[in-house]
Amino acid sequence: MTTKLLTALLLGTSILGTTGMALAEDVTLNIESWRGDDLTIWKDKLIPAFEAKNPGIKVVFAPSAPTEYDAALGAKLSAGSAGDLITCRPFDKSLELFKKGNLADLSTLPGMENFSPVAKAAWQTDDGKSSFCVPMASVIHGFIYNKDAFDKLGLKVPTTNEEFYAVLDKIKADGTYIPMAMGTKDLWEAATMGYQNIGPNYWKGEEGRQALIKGEQKLTDADWVEPYRELAKWKPYLGDGFEAQTYPDSQNLFTLGRAAIYPAGSWEIGLFNTQAQFKMGAFPPPVQKAGDTCYISDHTDIGMGLNAASKHPEEAKKFLAWVASPDFATIYANALPGFFSLNSTPVKMEDPLAQEFVSWRGKCKSTIRSTYQILSRGTPNLENETWVESANVINGTDTPEAAAKKLQDGLDSWYKPAK
Amino acid sequence: MAAQTRPKRPIRWHIGVFLAPAVLVYTAIMILPLAGTLQLSLFRNIEQHQVFVGFDNFRTLFGDPNWSVNFWNALRNNVWFFIIHMLVQNPIGVLLAALLSSPRLRFAAFYRTAIFVPTILSFVIVGFAWKLILSPIWGVAPHLLDFVGLKSLFTPWLGKEQYALTALSLVSVWQFIGIPMMLIYAALLSIPDEVIEAAECDGVTGMAQFWKIKLPLILPSIGIISILTFVGNFNAFDLIYTAQGALAGPNYSTDILGTFLYRAFFGFQLQVGDPNMGAAIATMMFLIILAGVCVYLFLVQTRLRRYQF
Predict the structure, then answer these.
(1) Looking at the 3D structure of chain B, how many domains does it have?
(2) Distance from A79 to chain B by nearest Cα, in Å?
(3) ipTM value of the model?
């Protein structure tokens, strides 16, 4: 009898005790992400900064592997076990989640006004009316060059096409360096670092991209074929056997100091800073004629949204509002040089190379990669075909005109622009 | 009266009991998924619902040029992949086995092991190692050719449309040469000594003995190897994927049915996966392999039997 009473008492206290604790316990928010690389930055810098200002909210960053992220997230969302905050892939993958009702509408979230329409475009419905993720970071395309090599050969940073090829010719004539480190084996280098890098200068950034989506321009128009003509001219400046040169090969050729110019995305900055033993600089894609407006690809890459089934939407929104603030932007951009904040407030960055990249936002007009929004929804997939055709053009197996025609034909077979 | 009727045969439970584990396991991991794939290929995802569409997916696969061009390209490449294996892997396998079974060869066990080792290596290692060997930047291939003064013969094989598939087929041959070698070697060892001795008494020795006595006796093994090669090649995927990526570049020149299926089923980069079209391709692969195996079983193997003892 006494033992029973004792057990009952003990049980009672334990239950009461735990409920008491749960009441006093902080709200915990879980972040779903594919950026396992950023775990330490979140744990040591971002989350403490947020928690210091918002007592009572605990945040846990729980990444999964990049290749498994989409499938795992889908499964967790349908099982109801996904975290409160969801790191968003750009465009269709997140749009699909929003349409399924997995992501909450964030159009009215305080802080969303800190972002430009281009920055928000990656996480909006096609009509642009609702936004469902806070833009976090973008990557900028351009060219990174070996400053020591340029100094040795007495070269100046090129700003126009003419100067660009003059520089390449000089490096080639000298023979110490491979003029440009790029390969076509992995295909995407040719498309992303080539076509999407120099292209915006020709199709006039957003203007051309929107016109393409509206169906007013075609990939066979001069503005869209011209970048391919330029790419075709790159062939003699690439290293021996560039057809079998992979992306890591290109990175290594450049960081080992064997190549002078590297058609780049800003995400390389972190790696190059640790590997290259020489000084580096960067220049934006050269314009056709001196005085032309320059355009850069400032591609929105990563955002964060709210799980519509979250049990703590208020706290999660508080966190998202902080993600939209300049405070977050400063910490994030400095911890990950090369992933630039999309916040309209300029962010102070320490890294000189990252500063150079981001300074182009001031003098050039920003756009995103032309194939990402809407145009890659069908079969054949425009983005994948662009990889293949860009490599073909550089390899010389397709003429620029033939490549453009193939892409446009593929697009026409399924895409009917809204009239 | 009743005692005189034939005793009722007892139900032979043990047959079922002994078969059950294999049948159950095989059904669960082979037959059900296969049936599932066939079923999936008859449906289509319309507005988040699986809708029965009959053979529409196959009509798309063969009627829509966006799919059919890729399919025929993949099939053509796959046939070439198979031809290279038949022309290079199997004859060399037979040759190696004949050399190994020669009683005068020293270190036979060492050679046998060394040649067989690549077969047990992972595709990832093989793909990566050969990518490095053939790399124009860091690879040993250009240097080795330079030593013998043939540097001019080197091209970035894996990056050229006209060579990439052949180069990869030869890498695959290198990897799997051990299998025909071992099977033929075993077949050669199992030829009874009396047959060989009788041949020697009749004065059939050396090369003539190989062509007239041994080769006919190992033909059934060669048949088995051919069909294994056929099935393996038309299911191949790993090597192309690890060496060239899912887009099987350059310009789809190394795209085989396996990589085509992968892209359709799981999607790639911005391309969203379409399990139904993927299942349609998988069904076609199944039918192609089934047809090949049937041809072998009904036309080739029945004739081969006559050579057996």
Answers:
(1) 2
(2) 17
(3) 0.84
CATH number assigned to the domain comprising residue A27: 3.40.190.10
Mutation for testing the A interface, residue in B138, B260, B271 having most A CBs under 10 Å: B271
Q: Which helix (H) or strand (E) holds A405?
A: helix A400-412
pLDDT at B116 over 90: yes
pLDDT, one tens digit per residue, over B192-229 is 889 889 999 998 888 888 888 898 889 889 988 999 99
Provide the residue range defining the domain that includes B187: 57-307
Are B48 and B95 part of one and the same domain? no
CATH number, domain with residue B119: 1.10.3720.10
Question: Cβ contact (<8 Å) for A410 and B252?
Answer: no
Give me the domain span that covers residue A230: 140-298+368-412
User: Do residues A165 and A261 both lie within one domain?
Assistant: yes
A132-172: pLDDT as tens digits: 999 999 999 999 999 999 999 999 999 999 999 999 999 99
Flag whether residue B268 sits within 8 Å of chain A, measured between CB atoms.
yes
| B272–A397 C-beta distance less than 8 A | no
Q: How far is A380 from chain B (nearest CA, A)?
A: 6
Residue A7 within any structural domain of the chain? no
Which of these, A220, A353, A226, A345, lies nearest to A283 by C-alpha position? A353
Inter-chain touch A379–B135, beta carbons under 8 Å: no
For residues B277 and B162, membership in a common domain is answered with: yes
pLDDT at residue A18 tops 70: no
Give mean pLDDT, residues A108-133. 88
The DSSP H or E segment spanning A145 is strand A133-146
Are residues B19 and B132 part of one domain? no
Cα–Cα dist A318/A134, whole Å: 12
Residues A146 and A293 in one domain: yes
A391/B158 CB distance under 8 A:
no
Q: Which residues of B touch A242 (CB under 8 A)?
A: 136, 156, 159
Residues B80 and B36 in one domain: no
pLDDT tens-digit series, residues A259-292: 999 999 998 998 899 889 999 999 999 999 988 9
CA B112 from centre of chain? 21
Do B30 and B146 belong together in one domain?
no
Mean pLDDT, chain B, whole residue set: 89
b (16+ CB within 10 A) / e for A303-341: bbbbbbebebeebbbbbbbbbbbbbbbbbbbbbbbbbbb
- pLDDT given at position A25: 65
Please tell me the distance from the alpha carbon of residue A176 to that of residue A152, in angstroms, as a whole number: 10
Look at strands A259-265 and A178-180 and give their pairing: parallel
Residue B70's pLDDT band (boundaries 50, 70, 90)? Answer: very high
What is the pLDDT, as a whole number, of residue B167? 95
Taking one residue from A and the other from B, the number of pairs with CB-CB distance under 8 angstroms is: 106
Judged by a CB distance cut-off of 8 A, whether residue A92 touches chain B is: yes
In whole angstroms, give the CA distance from residue A270 to residue A276: 10
Distance, CA of A257 to CA of A171 (rounded, Å): 13
Nearest by CB to A383, from B67, B244, B270: name it.
Answer: B270
Task: Tell me if A2 is assigned to some domain.
Answer: no
